[in-house]
Amino acid sequence: MNPWRLFAAVAPLPLPLAAARFVGAGVPIFPCVPDGKRPLVEHGFHEATTDPRQVQAWWKRWPTANIGMPTGPASGWDVVDVDAKGSDAGFASFDRARRAGLVTGWAALVHSASGGMHAYYPADPDRPQPSWQAAKAQVDFRGAGGYIIVPSSIIRSGGEVVGHYGLLHSAKPEVRPVDAAALRNFLDPRPAPSFRRTGAESRGQDAERLAGWVAALGEGERNRGLFWAACRLAEAGASPASALDALGPAAEHAGLPPREVFVTIRSAYRAVGAAPPRPQSAAPGQAEPPRRAAGVGSQVLS
C-alpha cells in the first residue's frame, strides 16, 4: 500500500469507515481505546487482522476506537516516532539524522496527536528490526514487536478534540528502508555488549552483562531496553528459559511488573524468530507469569 494515499483517503472518514479502508488496502489493524493508545483486545497488536468481518465487529462494538497498526514485517512499515513533549528536541534530533542521510527515504510524514511526528519507511521482510527508544534524543523506532496509532485516530479531553493523527507530507523521491541500528547509534551511542556465540559459559557472561544493564534502566526505557536485551540473547543462542531467568529479576528491579517482563521477552523471541519462553519455564521457586492483559508488553506510541 501507499501510506500517503491511504492516509489522505481516510482523513475525512469516521473511524469505522477508516478502519474498513485500511483493511481494504490489506493493512492489518486492531482497535485501541477511544481517545487513547492502549489496545482494546487481549493480545494487543498480535490480534491485528485484515479480516473485514472481524474489523467490522470490533468497530461496531467500539465505534470511537482509535486504529492501531503493527509495525515491522507484520504491516510492511517501520516508523520513526519523533516526540514533542516539552521541547523540540525530537524534531532537532530528526533533523540532524536527516542531514546525516539516515532518515531521508520516508514514504509519508504524519502529525501525531501529541504534536510530534511519525515518519514511515518500508520494512525489509528479510531483516526485521526490533523497536527501541532513544529517550534523550526524544526519538523512538517502531519496528518488529511494536505498533503505531494511525490516521484518522483522535485524542479528546473533556469532550473536545485536543489532537489528531493526520498527513503532513508525501513521500520523498527515493523511498527506502531506514537502518534502525545506524540511526540509534547516531542518536544515542552506547557500548554494545560483545557476544561470543559458542559455549554456555560465554552466553552466561553475556546474560550477566545484559542483566546489569537492564537493572539500571530508567522509566521510559525499561520495556524497550528489556526487549532489546532479550533479542540479543535470542540471537546469541540463549534458551528462552535462561533469558527469562537472567533478565526477569533485573527488569523487575528496574520497575517492570512480572507479567510485562514475561510478555516482553516472549515478544522479543518471536521477533528474532526463536522459540518464545513458556509460562512453565520460570525458574524454580518463581511464580508462573500471570496471563497476559490487554496491551501488556506492547510498544505504546506517541
From TrEMBL:
Residues 19-187 form the DNA primase/polymerase bifunctional N-terminal domain. Residues 273-302 are annotated as: Disordered. Keywords: Signal. SMART domains: PriCT_1, Prim-Pol. The keyword Signal applies. It comes from the Bacteria. Residues 211-274 form the Primase C-terminal domain. Pfam families: PriCT_1, Prim-Pol. This is Bifunctional DNA primase/polymerase. InterPro entries: DNA_primase/pol_bifunc_N (IPR015330), PriCT_1 (IPR014820). It comes from Microbacterium schleiferi. Residues 1-25 form the signal peptide.
